[in-house]
Design goal:
Elements lengths: L12 H17 L6 H7 L4 H7 L3 H24 L6 H22 L2 H12 L1 H25 L7 H11 L1 H4 L9 H25 L5
Helix pairs in contact: 1-2, 1-4, 2-3, 4-5, 4-6, 4-7, 5-7, 5-10, 6-7, 7-8
């Protein structure tokens, strides 16, 4: 599955306006304190018209998170596309960028934590969809690593998932409860050092003539 799997249908201007208004309320007042009638008022339309586009408040929240996911994956692809980066650099950039984005989201916009928790509770399949979309980016890096001889990977999809599991503490809503960003970034680098050392060791053992 790629980052375009299970895409939401394109939004027309009215649907976008509703989503924009709801997003502002979610991030300012919180998901739980936002009502459909308030969203409708912000859009100068009836509540019934909002329901024509989004059957429930949770559907608006999912659309908000889908937009967030698309933006995040675009950013991850952007940072690993910088010239001169090898596969190891790309893996480090990928996870350090995800830490930065996640940390900023939950500390600078704490209401986003509430919204994320609601989506994970009510629609857990969406969380799996997001992880698979980001795993597709990692699979591309792993494929490059195999081609350059920097990595020996037996199963790219499984290895991408293991990498995500190893970095979960640094790239999930757990950062809301953890320490300062600089400390977490340094610890993440230590974890990545161990992982990349393991890749190098395995690649060396699999090198021709060994």
């Amino acid at each position: 599955m790629t980052e375009t799997a299970n895409p939401a249908p394109p939004l027309d201007e009215t649907a976008k306006a509703i989503l924009d208004a709801a997003s502002k309320r979610f991030l300012h007042y919180g998901y739980g304190k936002t009502t459909m009638s308030e969203i409708a008022g912000d859009c100068n339309m009836s509540t019934g018209n909002v329901y024509r586009y989004y059957p429930s408040k949770l559907d608006i929240a999912e659309a908000f998170v889908r937009r967030l996911r698309a933006d995040q994956i675009a950013r991850l692809r952007e940072v690993i596309a910088q010239p001169g980066l090898g596969p190891n650099d790309k893996i480090r950039r990928f996870f350090q960028t995800k830490l930065r984005l996640t940390f900023d989201r939950f500390h600078n916009r704490p209401k986003a934590f509430e919204l994320s928790a609601e989506i994970l509770k009510e629609r857990p399949d969406f969380a799996n969809e997001w992880e698979k979309a980001e795993a597709a980016v990692l699979v591309g890096i792993l494929e490059e690593g195999e081609k350059t001889g920097a990595m020996a990977v037996s199963n790219r999809a499984r290895t991408a998932r293991i990498l995500q599991d190893a970095a979960f503490r640094f790239t999930s809503s757990s950062v809301f409860f953890e320490g300062e960003y600089d400390d977490m970034s340094a610890e993440l680098d230590d974890v990545l050092d161990l992982i990349l050392d393991g890749f190098a060791h395995r690649a060396g053992k699999c090198a021709p003539g060994d």
